TrEMBL record:
This is DUF3298 domain-containing protein. Residues 477-552 form the DUF3298 domain. Gene3D superfamilies: Fervidobacterium nodosum Rt17-B1 like, Heat-shock cognate protein, ATPase. Pfam families: DUF3298, WG_beta_rep.
Length: 569
């Protein structure tokens, strides 16, 4: 093991997509056997997923924190927020759980405090934890912010906000409908619900009269504001006296750091939610470039990454392309990670040297046996529509193989779309091998459709259960004896799980009415999995409610002499 920087990287295998870590030569230092892997943090730990749970490893690949959490948020000040049994907790860098009870929410630590929230006496309230995981400021506020410069803004009651210190002492109070967005000793505020935003100082004196529909925090003497009252944005940049540095005529403005801002013009002025084309401006508001970029990152050490319709590359503070770093045609983004350049291209990660030489990319051929393999193909008729879909190679009958691959294309939703059409949404799709045994291959085909301006995308997934001998795609009924009432039996089992298992407490009351004869499902060696789409029986946050039914529980109705069962047993 050397001490080089390690980079998370994935391989597609017959056991699914597996993650590990490569060195700057593209060699695996930690073999890919995790279900997910993230970058190593400053404390030398990286969060990985194993057996459906998250834990943390060191640079030798050893678990320092056992994989037992549903979520681990990055470490901050030696602490991380985790989700355990559906509740938020705090752990230290050894994995010890510091909180005696779980909460509805815990933020990352800042200035030795973490914001915490939960329902107290039928009301949702906020407070703060210390680094030992103890309540140091009681859960008593209607809203709250993270600490900054040793201060936080909390809502005490209607039309009453306060600045508090780390011990909960009130340093000042403000009697307005809203106070927040602290920066540079100024606070955004509004007097009434429908009123505009302005800025007050720490004593409550009005420094900039309310006239904005959006008022973001000040950073180094500048703040982004919006004056629009309809869907057409009018963003500008002001100084601490309220004077415009950049006039409020733009669809978007982002502060990038290093005294630089990105100024955006709407791609379509009638549909501003479709996004912007950006120019780079300096701190005085002077434009350094034309409106060339579809995306701009923040500056880090004098470098930012940009993307246009053709390529992604790096720029310096003057807005010119940075010397000595590559431009990648067709990439969505590039970033400097250690000694390498990480490239994101159609939701796939690869790494280049800083001279542009390919170091590593994910495989597109997945061997199953000496005969069978799955090929990853890409369909990209439009910049906003990208699908990676599977094709199977090696079936004995060429006719059967063609029919199977035609069906897989249909299930992967390969729509005909004009390359120059301005879509109102983005669509991305991919696949994983979730099970392979004997003649049965199970493929998960997943996608996410996001309409621009929506709160979130809408994910979907379907499972193809394919017999590699005859090319048949199996349905749920194929698993069971024909005369069996499999729908009734499975419906009863799922109903009992919802009633008795706390993990299904999120199911909407009355939403579950039994399974359908063609209920979405998949299998592995010993379990049947039945699942529902988001919102079907539970909230969006619940994802795809899934019910695991061991085959041993339903052997009496399984057709153990049937083709489906014998394809993998």
């Amino acid at each position: 093991m050397n001490n080089n920087f390690l980079y998370c990287a994935s391989l597609k295998t017959k056991e699914g997509t597996k993650w590990g870590y490569i060195n700057d030569k593209g060699e695996f230092e930690i073999n890919p056997h995790f279900e997910f892997a993230s970058d190593f943090q400053a404390n030398g730990l990286a969060t990985v997923k194993k057996g459906g749970k998250f834990g943390c490893i060191d640079k030798r690949g050893n678990f320092v924190i056992a994989p037992k959490f549903e979520t681990i948020i990055d470490f901050s000040e030696g602490r991380a927020t985790v989700v355990l049994n559906g509740r938020f907790h705090v752990i230290d860098e050894t994995g010890q759980v510091l909180t005696e009870q779980g909460y509805s929410f815990i933020s990352m630590y800042q200035h030795g405090r973490a914001m915490v929230a939960d329902t107290i006496k039928d009301a949702y309230r906020y407070g703060y934890l210390n680094k030992e995981g103890e309540i140091v400021i009681p859960l008593q506020y209607e809203t709250a912010t993270d600490f900054k410069d040793g201060l936080a803004i909390v809502k005490v009651e209607e039309n009453k906000f306060a600045l508090i210190d780390k011990h909960g002492n009130i340093t000042n109070q403000f009697h307005y409908f809203y106070v927040g967005n602290y920066g540079d000793l100024l606070l955004a505020f509004k007097k009434t619900f429908n009123g505009p935003y302005g800025y007050i100082d720490m004593k409550g004196n009005v420094m900039i009269e309310p006239k904005f529909t959006t008022a973001l925090p000040f950073e180094d003497g500048r703040a982004v504001v919006n004056i629009s009252n309809d869907i057409r944005n009018k963003y500008g940049l002001i100084d601490k006296k309220g004077n415009y540095i950049i006039q409020p005529i733009y669809n978007d403005i982002m502060i990038l750091g290093d005294n630089r801002v990105a100024v955006g013009k709407a791609v379509d002025e009638e549909k501003p939610f479709l996004g912007s084309n950006y120019a780079i401006a300096d701190w005085s508001g002077e434009l350094l470039t034309e409106f060339l970029y579809e995306h701009v990152s923040s500056f880090d050490q004098g470098i930012a990454s940009v993307f246009n319709s053709e390529k992604a590359f790096f720029i310096d503070r003057s807005g010119n392309r940075a010397r000595g770093l590559p431009a990648v045609v067709g990439a969505d983004s590039v970033s400097l990670i250690g000694r390498l350049v990480r490239v994101i291209k159609s939701n796939r990660v690869s790494y280049l040297s800083r001279k542009g030489k390919l170091v590593w990319k994910q495989n597109t051929i997945i061997p199953l046996t000496r005969r069978y393999r799955v090929l990853e193909k890409k369909y990209e008729p439009n910049n906003n529509y990208v699908v990676f879909y599977p094709q199977i190679d090696g079936l004995k009958s060429g006719k059967v193989e063609n029919e199977v691959n035609k069906k897989l294309k249909q299930l992967s939703n390969l729509k005909e779309i004009d390359r120059d059409e301005q879509l109102q949404y983005s669509y991305s799709g991919g696949f994983n091998i979730t099970f392979f045994k004997k003649n049965l291959l199970v493929l998960e085909l997943y996608s996410d459709e996001y309409y621009f301006g929506a709160a979130h995308g809408m994910p979907s997934k379907t499972y193809a259960k394919i017999n590699l001998i005859n090319g048949r795609f199996y349905e749920l009924k194929d698993l069971f004896i024909k005369e069996s009432n499999y729908v009734g039996r499975l419906s009863e089992i799922v109903e009992n799980m919802i009633k008795k298992d706390p993990q299904y407490s999120y199911v909407f009351p009355g939403a579950y009415e039994g399974i359908a004869p063609d209920q979405p499902f998949y299998v592995n060696d010993d379990t049947l999995y039945l699942y529902f789409a988001p919102y079907e029986i539970g909230p969006y946050a619940a994802g795809f409610p899934t019910f695991e039914i061991p085959f041993s529980e339903i052997m009496g109705i399984i057709d153990t002499k049937g083709e489906f069962w014998l394809s993998f047993h």
